[in-house]
Amino acid sequence: MCISFDYCKTDTVRDYSFNEINEKDEIELLFTRFQKKRRINIYYSDLVISEQTNSFSFFNGISSIDSAAIFLPKSGVGLVHELGHTFGLYHIFEKKFGFEKVDGTDCATTGDMICDTPAAIDVFHDKKTCEYYGNTIDVNGDYYKMELGNFMSHYFCAHCFFTTEQYEKMASNFLNAPIKLW
Ligand SMILES: [Zn+2]
Predict the structure, then answer these.
(1) Could you tell me the residue ranges of all domains in the chain?
(2) Residues 62-102: pLDDT tens digits?
(3) How far is the CA of 166 from the centre of ligand 1 (A)?
(4) pTM of the complete model
């Protein structure tokens, strides 16, 4: 992305009730009390919402002065995934715009709206081994694939790359943000 980050400050929230973040309300509370403007704020706790979820951030958080906030378990797992959301990336299995067809003919308007990621769906995976064993087909009868290693999949144990278009999308979201954080 050609963006570099400077380390700013480490702080401690001296309130044990935030040791586990069990619901979105607690995120709101943390956020209102501690969020620093014009920074990517990373909050570490023992648990974020649930074992299954265990990380959270605001979509395109860089687009406003105080919504760049990432919530992580102390292991740090999920940081790059949440940075992807913070810079405006959807999951590769996003369904709010409709399921992308496996042949990719509608890739710009469905799924994650990015064409060099595969049409994917978020089902049938083993969190420990990172194995995909889905056999779901699309409207054409083609089998969905899964890009296990893509940071915007939910295979956290296999994460290792963004695609070129994902980098371009993040960079353009940053450039188009109405305010600049830094
Ligand atoms: Zn996510």
Answers:
(1) 12-89, 90-161
(2) 999 999 999 999 999 999 999 999 999 999 999 999 999 99
(3) 14
(4) 0.93
Q: How far is the CA of 81 from the centre of ligand 1 (A)?
A: 6
* Ligand 1 centroid to residue 139 C-alpha, Å: 25
Place of tokens 């570099």: 4
Could you give the 3-state DSSP secondary structure of residue 145? coil
CA separation, residue 96 to residues 57, 109, 161 (Å): 18, 11, 23
Ligand 1 mean position, distance from CA 82 (Å): 6
Ligand 1 centroid–CA 130 distance in Å is: 16
The DSSP secondary structure of 9-49, one letter per residue, reads -------GGGSEE-SHHHHHHHHHHHPPTTS-EEEEESEES
Q: How far apart are CA 43 and CA 91, in angstroms?
A: 21
